[in-house]
């Protein structure tokens, strides 16, 4: 794997990713962190196996936990040797593999501080920001959007918005600054790039690159020395954007979902 992370860095990135996208309903059982957010996003509605546990009893407990919330049982499984036994357990249970995702990182070297002209930065998402992001990436209506708003509010963040010449929002992005990731007494904090979205009519006009540059500069201004982001394996255009901005692959994960249970029929 290109740029494979060492186990210490991989564990840190997992922790930061969990803090940056916090599920409102969570519980840790036997080293597995159960997360639920009304079905809004896989990340916030999946098990994060914080500990390398592959136990049938824990799997039964996870099944019941998600069943009580009327959600499918999904694991976020990272591609490293720690996951071998868990993958074997899930293979035996017929869990599917879906949504393979690359984790990419870069340092702050070469990122200029200061504002990027034309990009609006705020510490809360405006209604315009939310609507553009949700139009591009959202799944559901206003109820689901409110759940997503709560997830965003669960981590201190900066929000970037760039308008087209006619004043219409063209692109948005978010820089998550998880609690504990930036401390004045510890040099070298982390920032996470999330929610990169460009309106369909504004693509291929470098709006996304300007948003990314603005978020990276804002991160430097706030003490970040390293950055991470996630991009799906099938999104080659975004991968090219991030590689061009200096990001390299450091790891991968995918989601593993339990087979759907068919209800009994007949009389």
Explain the overall architecture:
- The structure is a single chain.
- This protein is of the alpha+beta class and 267 residues long.
- It has two domains: 7-102 and 253-257, no CATH class; 106-252, Gcn5-related N-acetyltransferase (GNAT) (Aminopeptidase).
- The chain is 31% helix and 28% strand.
- It contains seven helices and ten strands.
- It has helices spanning 7-20, 56-67, 84-92, 127-137, 142-153, 207-221, 236-244, and strands spanning 25-29, 32-36, 74-78, 96-107, 119-122, 157-163, 169-176, 189-198, 224-232, 248-257.
- Strands 3-10-4-9-8-7-6-5 form an eight-stranded mixed beta sheet, sandwiched between helices. The chain has a two-stranded antiparallel ribbon with strand order 1-2.
- The model is unreliable at 183-187 and 263-267 (pLDDT under 50).
**Overall geometry:** globular
Largest sheet: 8 strands, mixed
Rounded to the nearest angstrom, the radius of gyration is 19 Å
Number of domains: 2
CATH architecture of the largest domain: 3-Layer(aba) Sandwich
Beta strands, count: 10
Extract low-pLDDT stretches: 183-187, 263-267
Calculate the terminal CA-CA distance, rounded to whole Å: 53 Å
Task: Kindly list the characteristics that best describe this protein.
8-stranded mixed β-sheet, 267 residues, two-stranded antiparallel sheet, 7 helices, 2 domains, alpha+beta
């Amino acid at each position: 794997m290109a740029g494979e992370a060492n186990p210490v860095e991989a564990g840190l990135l997992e922790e930061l990713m969990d803090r940056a996208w916090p599920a409102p309903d969570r519980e840790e059982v036997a080293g597995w962190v159960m997360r639920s957010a009304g079905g809004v996003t896989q990340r916030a509605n999946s098990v994060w196996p914080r500990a390398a546990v592959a136990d049938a009893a824990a799997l039964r407990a996870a099944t019941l936990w998600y069943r009580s919330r009327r959600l499918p049982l999904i694991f976020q499984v990272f591609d490293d040797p720690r996951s071998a036994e868990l993958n074997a357990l899930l293979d035996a249970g017929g869990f599917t593999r879906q949504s393979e995702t690359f984790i990419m990182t870069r340092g702050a070297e070469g990122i200029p501080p200061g504002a990027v002209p034309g990009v609006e930065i705020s510490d809360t998402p405006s209604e315009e920001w939310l609507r553009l992001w949700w139009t591009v990436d959202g799944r559901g209506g206003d109820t689901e959007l409110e759940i997503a708003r709560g997830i965003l509010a669960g981590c201190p963040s900066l929000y970037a918005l760039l308008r087209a010449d006619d004043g219409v929002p063209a692109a948005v992005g978010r820089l998550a600054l998880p609690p504990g990731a930036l401390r004045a007494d510890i040099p070298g904090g982390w920032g996470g790039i999330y929610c990169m979205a460009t309106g369909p009519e504004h693509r291929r006009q470098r709006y996304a690159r300007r948003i990314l540059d603005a978020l990276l500069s804002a991160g430097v201004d706030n003490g970040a020395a390293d950055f991470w982001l996630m991009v799906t394996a099938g999104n080659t255009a975004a991968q090219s954007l991030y590689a061009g901005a200096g990001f390299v692959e450091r790891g991968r994960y995918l989601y593993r979902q339990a087979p759907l249970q068919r209800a009994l029929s007949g009389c």
